[in-house]
């Protein structure tokens, strides 16, 4: 098959690596090892990286101008074929890289056979993935910022709305709904920062690392890195092709974000239930029951909670995938992609649907306020009041505990006790006690940084808005 120094592709098979093989690949093996049906998602990144590689090869005198132009032209045509669904993908060419390269050779001939000079699929896939993940993180972060901004707007409307704050799922102390919503914003804000930080380690160019040991050609790695928008080039070729810790990071941070979304959705599901009755989720975001005509279920919230399971599963998958691999590259790594794509798709759809659903929620303010007055939620305020009147806190706690027990016995509230009864528990109680026994009084006292008072919630809102603005 070698004629006048030109290798043709008509040996045992059409495969680009078939030189040392004497027989065709077993059909089942071909199907088993193929990844084109999922890694074709990386085609755009693959073609961008190949174009940069070709320009660099030309710059380093490893390709003529004509060859380089022809490669770039050919790659453009291929990208268009792929984008318009006219590309013929085949398992015979295994993955996205070889499908593109084979088509390039078909289109432009011998120049196409030179593209893989000074490169391996091992540094190629690492490069494609880093470009893909970098872009995915930008998308995820943009959706996080949108959801934050939606929540901030609602928090502003509900800065004065009183509701019960829960610990152990029991009424604990009165809080404002705006404060609760801003807690969600804080959680999402940290997710945003984690992803942002992760980009620093993703945005490093592995291109030029070759199969593992680098290349003997005098290449210019900085040139390809700059063209592809990488801020650094990797320092060790073995590490560059072997590690997928940037995917582990994405999957970890995705799992944390998912857990946050799940908890938000658990709150919403509880609030939408009849015993709570705090919210009504818009009809367009609920579904009915096939048997019970009265049902309106918060399925979106439940599914976001449910999808957290697969995101956590995907993190487990990549961790287990890496743990047993001797350095450097092993084919195991091909299995990193489907969970990665699944996590990205899942997160984007969850974030988008929540941003649309939140403004459709109606908050039943009176019901929330009513619930906040149940369960002696201002008992701590009474104890604090007694401390200000000179009682040590531990004694105040005991006194109020007795008052609560008496209120329970009489099926009444602390604030409904007459002054004389309250004075029976502690003679330091005076007329002004009723100011702290109301839910408004309790909430309005908490004006320190991070407190639940409406004024403080507005302060949090202002700060959050400033942060979002800085990010634009
Ligand atoms: N498809 C492979 C992957 O997803 C990339 C190709 C490297 N294959 C190889 N035999 N060295 O990781």
Count every beta strand, where a strand is a DSSP E run of 2 or more residues: 8
Question: What strand order characterises the main sheet?
Answer: 1-2
User: What Rg is obtained from the alpha carbons, in whole angstroms?
Assistant: 31 Å
The small-molecule ligands in this entry are: arginine
Low-confidence stretches: 5-12
For the residues shown, what is the average pLDDT?
A: 95
Secondary-structure element sequence?
EEHHHHHHHEEHEHEHHEHHEHHHHHHH
Which geometry do the CA atoms define?
elongated
N-end to C-end Cα span: 58 Å
The helix count comes to 20
What is the percentage of strand-forming residues? 5-15%
Helical content class: 55-70%
Biggest beta-sheet profile:
2 strands, antiparallel
Instruction: Classify the secondary structure makeup into a structural class.
Output: mainly alpha
Short description:
The protein is mainly alpha-helical and 472 residues long. It is built from 20 helices and 8 strands.
Can you tell me about this structure?
This protein has helices at residues 27-33, 36-39, 43-59, 65-83, 96-108, 110-113, 121-157, 177-202, 221-227, 237-242, 245-272, 299-323, 337-357, 365-372, 379-388, 393-409, 419-425, 433-437, 439-444, 454-471, and strands at residues 2-3, 6-7, 162-167, 170-176, 204-205, 232-233, 279-280, 362-363. Residues 5-12 have low confidence and may be disordered. The chain is mainly alpha-helical. The relative contact order is 0.10. Helices cover 60% and strands 5% of the residues. It has a two-stranded antiparallel ribbon. The protein has a two-stranded antiparallel ribbon with strand order 3-4. The longest helix is centred in the N-terminal third of the chain and has 37 residues, at 121-157. Helix 7 (121-157) runs antiparallel to helix 20. The protein is built from 20 helices and 8 strands. Residues 35, 39, 95, 121-122, 125, 329, 331, 333-334 line the site of arginine.
């Amino acid at each position: 098959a070698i004629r006048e120094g030109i290798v043709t592709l008509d040996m045992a098979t059409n495969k680009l690596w078939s030189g040392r093989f004497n027989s065709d690949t077993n059909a089942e093996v071909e199907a088993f090892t193929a990844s084109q049906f999922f890694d074709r998602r990386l085609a755009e990144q693959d073609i961008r990286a190949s174009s940069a590689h070709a320009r660099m090869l030309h710059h380093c005198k490893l390709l003529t101008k004509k060859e380089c132009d022809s490669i770039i032209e050919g790659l453009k045509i291929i990208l268009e074929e792929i984008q318009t669904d006219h590309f013929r993908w085949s398992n015979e060419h295994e993955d996205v890289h070889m499908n593109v390269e084979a088509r390039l050779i078909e289109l432009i001939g011998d120049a196409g056979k030179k593209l893989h000079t000074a490169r391996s699929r091992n540094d190629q896939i690492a490069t494609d993935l880093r470009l893909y993940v970098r872009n995915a993180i930008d998308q995820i972060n943009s959706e996080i910022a949108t959801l934050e901004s939606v929540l901030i707007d609602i928090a502003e409307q509900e800065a004065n709305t009183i509701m019960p704050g829960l610990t152990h799922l029991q009424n604990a102390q009165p809080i404002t709904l705006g404060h609760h919503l801003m807690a969600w914003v804080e959680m999402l804000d940290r997710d945003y920062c984690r992803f942002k930080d992760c980009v620093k380690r993703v945005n490093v160019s592995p291109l030029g690392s070759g199969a593992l040991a680098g290349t003997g050609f005098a290449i210019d790695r900085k040139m390809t890195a700059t063209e592809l928008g990488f801020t650094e080039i990797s320092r060790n070729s073995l590490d560059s092709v072997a590690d997928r810790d940037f995917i582990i990071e994405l999957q970890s941070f995705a799992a944390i974000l998912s857990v946050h979304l799940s908890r938000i959705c658990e709150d919403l599901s509880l609030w939408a239930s009849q015993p709570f009755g705090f919210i009504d989720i818009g009809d367009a975001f609920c579904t009915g029951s096939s048997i019970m005509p009265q049902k309106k279920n918060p399925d979106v919230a439940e599914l976001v909670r449910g999808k957290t399971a697969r995101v956590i599963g995907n993190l487990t998958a990549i961790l287990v995938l890496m743990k047993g691999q001797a350095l450097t590259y092993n084919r195991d790594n091909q299995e990193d992609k489907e969970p990665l794509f699944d996590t990205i798709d899942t997160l984007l759809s969850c974030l988008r649907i929540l941003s649309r659903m939140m403004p459709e929620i109606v908050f039943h303010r009176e019901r929330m306020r009513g619930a906040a007055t149940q369960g002696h939620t201002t008992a701590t305020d009474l104890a604090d009041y007694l401390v200000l009147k000179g009682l040590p806190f531990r004694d105040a706690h005991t006194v109020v505990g007795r008052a609560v027990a008496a209120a329970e016995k009489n099926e009444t509230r602390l604030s409904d006790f007459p002054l004389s009864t309250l004075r029976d528990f502690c003679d330091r109680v005076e007329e002004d006690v009723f100011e702290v026994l109301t839910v408004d009084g309790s909430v309005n006292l908490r004006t320190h940084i991070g407190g639940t008072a409406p004024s403080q919630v507005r302060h949090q809102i202002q700060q959050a808005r400033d942060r979002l603005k800085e990010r634009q």
